[in-house]
Amino acid sequence: MGDEFARIEWLKTRFELDDAPEGLVLGIGDDAAVFDFGNRPTIVTVDTQIEGAHFRRDWISPRDLGRKALAAAVSDIWAMGGVSCASIVALSLPSGMSEQDFHELVEGIAGAARTTGATVIGGNLSAGEHLSVTTTAFGWPKRSAVTRAGARPGDLVYVTGTLGAAALGLAILQAGRADLEYADRFVERWRRPPMNGRAAISMAEVATAAVDVSDGCVQDLAHLCAASGVGARVHADALPLARGHLETAEALGLDPRTLALAGGEDYELLFTAAPSSEAEAFAAEIGRITEGSEVEVVDADGRPLTLDRAGFRHFK
Predict the structure, then answer these.
(1) CA distance 7 to 178
(2) Most buried among 14, 77, 180, 264, using CB within 10 Å?
């Protein structure tokens, strides 16, 4: 099956228009599109959580799934330095799903909508072979939309929260290692992504470029660098890790650094900015933007590191 990002590039060519529609500010290729419907620019994005591809129902409750589905979509709004304002949700429900589970799923969506401000204003309900939740989210830029294309050599690379914790939680579930000391903490991190709305507002004030970490830190940073026409150097020893990350990864026979650099579903904000105390107040510095196009990871002595994998891909 074809590569996910090669397919996206091909799709961009198929949907290109000789004349862009009136109101289009930013089209395919970023975390979200930006369209001016006549009042002010609006950020628009869509995300799908599909049973079997993104989750197993025995690993996550319906309520947490609803919360996660909406948070994953709104994360793209936050990555553009936006404030979420509305959402539309389409549910595909398998025949064996109980009414109680359906209610719990909807309550999870509703709770996340209240927390993020992405009020559910419509959607669709259908039957399907597998459970899926598709969320279209809308938001308004706090200032102008922060895209992936503004990074400059000399900017620092920052990230909110911690990296690799969600991937570690998924690995615990896959290995059936609920006995590990920090298992509950990491599994919970996979089930319940962070709500970064407040950080997004702060980021909008300082960021030159941004992306949300959904596929993996290095892979998403590479997307940002490609859009900006720059490279980056990431310091592995500067990666922010949750308490218990090292020992839990080692207990599972996994490389802690690879999880942090390439693990998906962090839903943290990765951005570039000029060195500033404002950025340091809510994010950790993990590297620097460089000339060229290479994204490299180095150890504490400046030696290049090679990753076991680059990040999550839907098609392999």
Answers:
(1) 37
(2) 77
